[in-house]
Design a protein that fits this description.
single chain; 462 residues; alpha/beta; eight-stranded mixed sheet; four-stranded antiparallel sheet; globular; 34% helix
Length: 462
């Protein structure tokens, strides 16, 4: 056996066993994922994120432990001792769930309690210049932040931010279309600068309202480091799906110009290409357009993402992901830089999987100053506002409380990579999550065998 991908050192130090119990019977951990392809054998530990390659005899001996436990002598005879020390193999009576919860507790304890907010998702407006056919915010009232709310928001940030003086807070501009309220963003950033509050920001935008002057201000005053620009494929698909209010001004060409404006200012651009079975067949041609348009620019990358609505179509959704993986290979062949976030395998154990289970560290603030814990549920889960503070302590307590792990999830190989928040109101949860994780894991392990590193590139999720 040989380790071909190191795991999370924090976790491996906790679980590694120097001494094994000679009286115990040992079995395969549910956190051990087995993969074989073309005569090569990999195992991946989803708790430690380590990946090991085995010989054929080691693979056969390990696989037999799925059916029936064996004693220490069996492990020694078949060269499996190190796998037992590294939690691929565990005592038959041991509970993986308890071990997982213990590790989370230790990591959170070592990290300490939050010392203030680190991240603010701010919606300066819910208004938008597009009427996307798939928008999850359809029906939400159009609101724009007032000067009074802007003033109070800056006060709120000063009062609640992380208390380490020189550590910048993170702001994510969301909407609606945040560029429709560019003047409001400027007022907020000007006030933060005047108060010597260090900050950096990211944005989710369609980009079509951007001008060259605005891009310069975004870099210099907004401290914008990264943007996600949403696309829908080639011109015909894009303009049909975006359904702009003023299509003569806001259109495919305007989006392409905006990407250039951002990039020329040194702002990193993630192109999120929304796909379903209606447009995915035309993505190869769209890749050619991207290559011609941005092939020489180093700070632009692309990834394919299924529309949220597709998750409701259980069987076809998995087929759609299969097509996404196939097209991602094509993207690599065409040397179009890609963002790995939609396909990567995590390489460390996260104690908070998303903003929703990071209460006290991250918060969403709507145009009228209302609190929320998820940008995709801006009107559904609130417990207060920037003017009155906490107005619903019961909801705040519920959202802040440790979420119990669902009995089905407790037996899942991918529990350490998932979030316990999934089944309690998360818009991202879907019933085929296990099948998706299997598909993604096997895709990434297959790429690893081909010598392609698909691990996270460190990008934060936008």
């Amino acid at each position: 056996m040989r380790v071909i991908k190191q795991g999370d050192s924090r976790v491996t130090k906790i679980i590694y066993k120097k001494n094994l119990n000679p009286e115990a019977q040992y079995r395969l951990s549910i956190f051990t994922y087995l993969y074989q392809s073309q005569g090569r054998y990999l195992i991946r530990n989803t708790l430690t994120f380590e990946i090991v390659e085995l010989t054929a005899p080691e693979w056969k001996a390990l696989s037999s432990l799925k059916e029936s436990p064996a004693g220490l002598a069996y492990l020694e005879a078949n060269g499996l001792i190190e796998l037992a020390r590294s939690y691929y193999i565990i005592p038959a009576e041991e509970s993986e769930l308890k071990q997982y919860e213990k590790i989370l507790f230790l990591l959170k304890t070592m990290a300490g309690s939050p010392k203030g907010m680190e991240s603010y998702v701010i919606l300066p407006t819910t208004g938008c210049n597009a009427r996307c056919t798939y928008c999850f915010e359809e029906g939400i009232a159009t609101k724009t932040m007032s000067p009074k709310t802007v003033e109070r928001l800056v006060d709120f940030i000063c009062e609640t931010r992380y208390k380490e003086k020189y550590k910048p807070i993170k702001i994510r501009w969301f909407g609606g279309e945040p560029l429709a309220a560019a003047a409001i963003i400027t007022r907020i950033c000007t006030s933060l600068s005047q108060r010597d509050i260090p900050y950096r920001s990211t944005m989710v935008t369609n980009g079509t309202l951007l001008t060259a002057e605005m891009a310069k201000e975004a870099k210099e005053l907004w401290h914008l480091e990264k943007v996600q620009v949403s696309l829908d494929g080639a011109r015909e698909d894009y303009e049909l799906r975006k359904n702009y209010v003023a299509p003569n001004k806001h259109n495919y060409d305007a989006a392409m110009r905006a990407i250039h404006f951002f990039s020329e200012q040194g702002i990193h651009v993630n192109l999120r290409v929304n796909v379903d079975f209606e447009n995915i067949g035309r993505i190869p041609e769209f890749f050619k357009e991207l290559k011609a348009e941005f092939g020489s620019m180093e700070n632009i990358d692309t990834y394919l993402a299924p529309l949220f609505q597709e998750k409701e179509k259980e069987e076809s959704f998995m087929n759609l992901y299969g097509e996404i993986f196939r097209l991602t290979d094509l993207q690599d062949e065409m040397k179009i830089p890609r963002t790995t976030r939609s396909l990567h395998e995590t390489h460390f154990l996260r104690t908070n999987m998303c903003m929703a289970d990071a209460m006290g560290q991250s918060i969403v603030i709507t145009p009228d100053g209302i609190f929320n814990n998820c940008e995709h549920l801006p009107e559904k889960q609130t417990w207060g506002n920037i003017f009155d503070g906490v107005t619903d302590p019961e909801t705040e307590k519920k959202l802040s409380a440790k979420t119990s792990i669902d009995p089905i999830c407790a037996k899942c190989t991918f529990l350490p990579e998932c979030t316990p928040y999934f089944k309690t109101g998360c818009s991202g949860w879907f019933s085929k999550c296990y099948e998706y994780y299997c598909l993604r894991t096997e895709y990434n392990l297959g790429k690893l065998l081909k010598g392609v590193d698909v691990e996270s590139n460190g990008d934060e999720e936008i």
